[in-house]
Amino acid sequence: MDDTIHAGTDTDSRYVVATYRLRDRADTLEARAEGIAIGLTIGTWTDLPNARKAQVAAHCGRVEGIRVIDEAAPGGVIAEIDIAYPVANLDTTFASLLTTVFGKLSMDGEIRLQRLHLPEDLERAYPGPKFGVSGVRERFGVYGRPLVMSIFKACAGLTLDELVDQFGEQAAGGVDLVKDDEIFFSEVHASAAERVVAYREKAREVAAQTGRETAYAVNLTGPVHQLRDKAKRLAELGAGALLVNVVAYGFDVLADLARDPDISVPILAHPAVSGALYGSPNYGIAADIVLGQLMRLAGADMGIFPSMYGSVTLGGEATEQLLAHLRKDGVHRKVLPAPSAGIYPGLVPQLYRDFGIDLILNAGGGIHGHPGGASMGGQAFFDAISAVQQGQSLQAAAVDKPALAAAIAKWGARA
Ligand code: 1AE
């Protein structure tokens, strides 16, 4: 490659740096890396006349590093390569970012996007969370402990009255939030607006007895061009939060919602479909980028992801990296993590150890499946929280807490 391509300084605010893990022949690695850097930016370099080179130089990608990770791997070496892409080639959409760093390239054999470094100025161009951890706590009035969220189960086909009953039972357990199931799109029996209004009335009725008003995270559904208006309307009607299937809709849809100052409720990001991106160790995009870095940039206030322990799992290392994206100091507010899938009260001590208190305990089956019903399921989570806060084992606490005792009898408890 012509040296002039390297004329810029080290990685700097003019470049997004993407790190890929790929399998290729050792003797062609360098050419492959250069092919990516040039191919995804200006297309060709060596064939350009000098005047044209000067014109496009600021738009040209460059190879920042090549490291062989496993030289004895079958079918070629495994290597990591770093490619710097000029910010000048991007606008402030995820469409431009993702298409540039992993558009056509994602289809070019065994290659995985492992890390993505954005300069701060570019990060600032994305909205980030409107509420973040402290804003969410303030909005729901929850301090000094994790939030507890219950998930509606089996909603499609139910009448509004039946749904309200289900909401009421969950709220009676004292949970901070009840979220829609992400698969609930049908509005045959009750529109999202009708649900928001009816659940709010129910939440107030329950609060008159419990002293706690449970918020509702409504699934934001429908055609993309209607989402912002719908979100505003649902917020005005009293929705506590908006549940968004971010990967299915696209990160720019979330960013649009987060940027809108009139949408005044926190956004709860669901990871549906994300496994198709991060599931393979050799293809796709690393889970921490999809569910951590991009979610925060796009404006999720609360981020659901598969926990390390439940029915759909994410590995420990991926979880650590994901958490770092949600929580590290940076230009945007921090995101409240909701490790999910198969969460039950007996996991609370482990969740405290792994995540601390800035956390959402999010459970569907672990609340509805409680032998005493959803209300006792929620109560069992609060029993477990108070045991951990007092330094008590769950077994000791369960002696005079029937909801916790029944949960432990059913699902067990981790010390
Ligand atoms: C990681 C997604 C978890 C989810 O969407 C969900 O509905 C979990 O339900 P349970 O708690 O596993 O029943």
UniProtKB/TrEMBL annotation:
A Pfam match: RuBisCO_large_N
Record GO terms (molecular function): magnesium ion binding; ribulose-bisphosphate carboxylase activity
Domain Ribulose bisphosphate carboxylase large subunit ferrodoxin-like N-terminal: 12-119
Annotated InterPro entries: RuBisCO, RuBisCO_lsu_C, RuBisCO_lsu_C_sf, RuBisCO_lsu_fd_N, RuBisCO_lsu_N_sf
Biological processes, Gene Ontology terms: carbon fixation
Signal peptide: none
Lineage top rank: taxon: Bacteria
Boundaries of every Ribulose bisphosphate carboxylase large subunit C-terminal domain copy: 132-411
Family the entry assigns: Belongs to the RuBisCO large chain family.
The name this protein goes by in its record: 2,3-diketo-5-methylthiopentyl-1-phosphate enolase
Source species of the chain: Alicyclobacillus sacchari
